[in-house]
Amino acid sequence: MFLERFIHYIQYEKRYSPHTVSAYQSDLEQFFTFLNQFEISPDDPAAITYQHIRSWMVHLMEDLTARSVNRKIATLRKYFKFLLREGAITTNPASKIQSPKTVKHLPVVVEDEKLSAMLNDTGLFSDDFAGTRDKLVVEILFGTGIRLAELVGLKEGDVNLYDNTIKVLGKRNKERIVPVNHELKQLLEKYLQLKKSENFDNNSLTLIVTNKGTEAYPKFIYLLVQRYLSHISTQDKKSPHVLRHTFATSLLNRGADLNAIKELLGHANLSATQVYTHNSVERLKSIYKQAHPKA
Fold this sequence. Notes:
- It contains 13 helices and three strands, in the order αααααααβββαααααα.
- It is mainly α.
- The protein has two domains: 85 residues, DNA polymerase, domain 1; 179 residues, Intergrase catalytic core (hpI Integrase, Chain A), CATH 1.10.443.10.
- A three-stranded antiparallel beta sheet has the order 1-2-3, with no helix packed on it.
- Helix 1 runs antiparallel to helix 2, helix 6 crosses helix 10 and helix 10 packs across helix 13.
């Protein structure tokens, strides 16, 4: 009962994305499955104590990374905060839980010079619909910094070639306007013409479609990006998010204001954007070591 009410709350009141709602529900179902050994029902949240949550953490740490455990603990914090607000509990058992420490990794990027050279390689992308679509996907991700889910959700009507902008629906259904550079605008024009000339049966209004004209899906985009980044990078991570990281890092390295980058990326807090400053510091250190006689 309480779980269903919580899911309804984050889905319709907080307007979390379907992916986030699914993750929260999965985390809580795992937690309640663990509580079965203590004969605690999901309908009796007042019986859950700090020790129960702590035991679950220890259990999770056997198989998961600290980062994954922290995400699940964040779900519990949100859930018990909701129960406290609803009057279902009088004390929050998750309030004293300390999250396990995680190793902070810098965002993985590719060299923008190599990326630009790849996009200008006329022999890599074919001139037909599929090749133009593939190039457009990489150009949009690198040229706008939007997320994978945001790209998949783009409609043709979200593209404004008159104002050189794209309307993006981000997390929690928050809209933002992202500028489009001249090369990307030309590529969009070419792609839309080719898409129309294909005369697909379904005539989808979704911007990015497959070779059969159906709506592109996350795995399709992921594999596409991975395939092309393999031409210029040997690193393990070759995901669409790497292009988002590269977009932000490139702007910062060229003097863009951090708050402006925050707005372009659709971050809710500046702290999420500040992670890219570390990449810039590492770049400066590298330049210093190469150029200074006493480095």
